[in-house]
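User: Good morning. I'm curious how pyridoxal-5'-phosphate would be positioned relative to this chain. Could you predict the structure with it bound?
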Amino acid sequence: MSQLINQAQQYTPGGVHSPVRACTGMGVAPLFLTHATGPYVVDHQGQQYVDYICGFGPTILGHGHPAISKAVTQQAQQGLVYGISDVKAPILSQYICEAFPSVEQVRLMNSGTEACMTAVRLARAATQRPKVIKFEGTYHGHHDAFLVSAGSGAMNTVSTSGVTVGATQDTVLLPFNDIVAVEQAFKTDPKAFAAIMIEPIAGNMGMILPKTGYLKALRQLCDQYGVMLIFDEVMTGFRVAYGGASVHYDIRPDLVVLGKVIGGGLPIGAVAGPRAILSLLAPIGPVYQAGTFSANPMSLSAGIATFQQLQVQGVYEGLTSYANALCEGLVKCSAACDVPLQCVSLGGMLGLFFSEQPVECLTDAQASNLDQFKLFYRTMREQGVLWPPSPYEAFFIGTQHDDETLRKTLEAARYAFKACSISEGVH
Ligand SMILES: Cc1ncc(COP(=O)(O)O)c(C=O)c1O
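Assistant: Good morning! Here's the predicted structure, ligand included:
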């Protein structure tokens, strides 16, 4: 093991500052990077990889985009954090509000976790009800109330360890994509639910699309029972479409939670919705929320530079066409090796499962061939292509992925699927 990894493990639990980076379950050492450019990242031994992690979503314009670099460099010379509102805060807020038909106001904060936590607090204050529906395998940050069957890195842990029963007693866990389960819960306890919290496209148990009509049916049930529909678009926001899944599927959630892309690669989170609900927040309303680094000048400058680029014609068409080509290529390569594969994509987000059946919920995801994913991950990495090191993560594409990265990826994939088919033969 390298000296760097020893040093990391000596001073940090697991050697990492966020669990998925440890590559647990992939049977390989964690990576440490020195830098990243465009669609590539480079590790401390000088090995370059085509990057499909993209910071776990934020770097939709690739690494080191000139417009973002210029904006943050300029800002760094003018102050990093003021603790007083920056003139750029209303500009980023306006970009967000104008992207969603249902959004009039936004409160910026520092992470998706904070934003999800605040959205639920708002929903409880607005409805004066306690319970929140969360779906199996979704991830809404590491706030106590959501660490119940949580996805992403929490999938490998007893996610409620260290969390009191009290903190999760109002979280009601249901399967994703099962409208009857939601209807049943509402019928059983019609006045108990403040909100449904959902990733409209699940991205933290692998990528799973909502079934046709599912999100609309949730909207109708929420209207019928006076429950707030919260779309956690921390991952999907401005990634699957300008706006996000709510715009793509034409659904008006009561609150939208954002993060990742809107900060252009710097820390950010946001809760967005109608003025009537956002006005419940302090200093106008009784719901408290605050942050030293909220709407800090650095994140604002990176975020605004990103929005300016995202509004350029053809950005999402470009992401979609790359994702489609990658998906088709992967399916073709896997079929040639007799390896069953499900691959879905939307905008700059993509997911694959080693499964014969389409994957619609956590149970399906867990039934996919995890050993094959592991072998695929390792072989691709050896060939210089980096996926997230877990079958329970989505893959991300940026505007700087190009014909050359596609060619390299599919060349590596042919080799990796072959390795998967040989290993299946041996078993
Ligand atoms: C859907 C979703 N919600 C919330 C979060 C938490 O965001 P953060 O890591 O910025 O706290 C994530 C992080 O990956 C996410 O994917």
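The domain at 66-310 is CATH 3.40.640.10 (Aspartate Aminotransferase; domain 2). The chain has a mean pLDDT of 95.
Let me know if you'd like a different ligand tried.
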